[in-house]
Specification:
The protein is mainly alpha-helical. Strand 4 and strand 5 form a beta hairpin. Helix 5 packs parallel to helix 8, helix 6 runs antiparallel to helix 7 and helix 7 packs antiparallel against helix 8. The longest helix is centred in the middle third of the chain and has 30 residues. It starts with a helix and ends with a helix.
Length: 217
Amino acid sequence: MTLLLRTAGVPARLIGGYHGGMWNEVGHYYIVRQKDAHTWVEYWNGHTWHLINPTPARLLEKTKSVSVFTKWLDYLRLRWYVYILNYDFSRQQQFFRTLKQHFVSLPKAPRLKLNKEKYKKIVLIGFCLVMIVLLLILGLRHIKTNPALKLRQLLKAYGYSFHDADGLLEIAAQIAPKDAQLGQLITDFAYMWYEMRFGNKKELKNKLKRIKRHLNH
């Protein structure tokens, strides 16, 4: 449509944005998804830009409403970005001012009355703290059970030195001139690790045991 208008001598431009959206009553905002992305045409009528949309109407029909559970998940994800990922100094000040307002009068009023919005904020803060702890635990567990890191620690424990930026194949190439069998074992381990990094690591553990037996021998 833009090209046709320009060919006819009518100034036209293509606009990209979003069409529609879904109201989330949990967080009181609109959910605009990537599937809502849309482009349309504007042409100059001599005084102002006028919108014209050649897209068939059936393609612009609004999607069906999602469940309340999905809206809660989207609300929690939004708050995660706001209060965790984008938690800058100004938001920290705002957070502590809110805490001060909530708790400064506690000695005079032991019973803290919370409205719906304040209750949701407290629940959300608690949820975020729990998620942070879980992420830390999972991260530490990943480091502890990572076969590639275990191999690096094992080799360093037996006196082999290499740079932290060296890959497993580079480490194998450095060790091979001194111990060809160990170099080959590490090479086999590396190829299997690259292939099974996000899958079952049972065979990797077996190869790690073989390397350990060789070192102990």
